[in-house]
UniProtKB/TrEMBL annotation:
It comes from the Eukaryota. Heme binds at residue 461. This is Cytochrome P450. The keyword Transmembrane helix applies. InterPro entries: Cyt_P450, Cyt_P450_CS, Cyt_P450_E_grp-I, Cyt_P450_sf. It comes from Linum tenue. Keywords: Heme, Iron, Membrane, Metal-binding, Monooxygenase, Oxidoreductase, Transmembrane, Transmembrane helix. SUPFAM superfamilies: Cytochrome P450. Belongs to the cytochrome P450 family. The keyword ATP-binding does not apply. Pfam families: p450 (PF00067). Gene3D superfamilies: Cytochrome P450. The lineage of its organism: Eukaryota, Viridiplantae, Streptophyta, Embryophyta, Tracheophyta.
Amino acid sequence: MISCSLEAINNIPCLLLTLATILTVTLLIRNKQQRSKPAAGLNLPPGPWQLPIIGNIHQLIGHRQPHRRLRSLAHKYGPDVMSLQLGELSYIVISTPEAAQQVMKTHDLEFASRPSLLAPNVLFNGCKDIAFAPYGEYWRQMRKIGVLELFSGKRVQSFRRVREEEVSNLVDSIALLAETGEAVDLTSMMSAVTSAVTSRAAFGKAPELSDAFMMVVDHISDVIAGFKISDLYPSFESLPVLTGYRARLDRMREASHSILDRIIDEHKSRRRRAGLIEEDMVDVLLNHQENQDLGIPITDEVIKGVTLVSMLIFCFVLELFLAGIDTSTTAFEWIMSEMIVNPTVLKRAQEEVRQVFADGSVDEAGLRQLKYLDMVISEGLRLHPPVPLLLPRENAEKATLDAYDIPINTKVIVNAWTINRDSRYWTEPEKFYPERFMDGSVDYRGTHFQFIPFGAGRRMCPGMSFSLAIVKLTLASLLFHFRWRVPTEMTREGLDMTECFGAALRRKNALRLIPVLFDDIA
Ligand code: HEM
């Protein structure tokens, strides 16, 4: 998912420098700019001690895995709900399924907004996307269009051929490489497949322009991941030390807008030639423009010559790329890694795939018979949620959680990684054991709060089906066509499983494995 301010805290080297600057500047002008303090007499959730000005930032500094650090802080200071002060902003951290249910079900409406962060503000013309739009009529309309038109089961189904073609190309390239006996970089390969499927779903076949768009998106992902001091000290947004970041964001927005404008123009001229066709996501939105049934009020949203519809397309498409590619690749690489270190799981999953597709080709129609693979995917998402700290939420009114008062505009971080490993709900929670999902009583669809890789409630991920369709087809195909070995210098148990916290909780090192073609399929 798109990076949030907190995830960045692990990216500390540049933080220290920036922090020193901020501290100095803050001390100089703190009489002018006071950070807001909650009114006295409130029953706030417990939390660790705070320093003036930086609050609890020092307790996160030096910890490269903030989800793990927040778990240990929560154990000590606030097992369910913990208060943290990060710079100018008040946060609460949610670390149990019960508290998550309070936030995302019982009080879902109260906590349905998002904090305003600089990057989405600039990139999405003032958070005009789905993920970062504040709760309200605009977000509702955007989400409705997204859920009905872009991420619905019907729409995901319509990209079946695209997925099958891209995964089949992947299998062909791996088969060629298998002849060399060398390890292949499965992480990069999966990233390429996900990007190709996403770009064809969004733009249809427009390879040159979509490649250019992908390059800008990659750059955006790099720039927005990491510590963003401007999000923790919003009153200092205009300080020179921060304006460079804003200027970079501006440039990236312009670059991606201009590529997208050309893509939209191409679509429009093709539509003029071929009549109304509904092929990809840009076409779907252009159809709505022509029918004037978007439902979003057309105010004076003409920004630098960008029409409202181009802007909507821009927000949807950019979000699709930013939200979908890293998360799906991450889910895939961890599931595959866990199967490698748990050979009995790999064997069982492989037997199932080869039995279901005994006639020799993997297709999406047969995927639903892969019940064991479903359990493997669930277990992978439980142990390695690609978004370990859910996108922050915010309450637009003051609220209460259990007995605690939560002042207005508190940022809420739900630590899904910790929640998914709660030993009160999961036996041996650190173990990769897909059979725990055998009875089908718990799933990731947002009603079981001990397992929330896609979040829950109004702001739950709408891209779940889009993502799982690619992940499952790729896993099934790779298990069907190849046996997988670790490079000779390592053992299965020795496979490096180090995490790297960023836009998604990736593997630190790419997953490199040796493919061996199943003889009878060759
Ligand atoms: C394995 C893959 C994915 C995972 C684990 C994932 C996870 C998440 C999570 C945890 C959230 C926040 C939910 C909350 O606040 O309760 C989210 C939001 C979102 N995701 Fe995903 N996501 C994935 C793939 C995708 C894809 C492929 C797309 C687009 C096609 C997408 C689009 C979005 C959007 C637009 C939101 C914001 C929803 C809102 O604020 O209303 N995600 N995702």
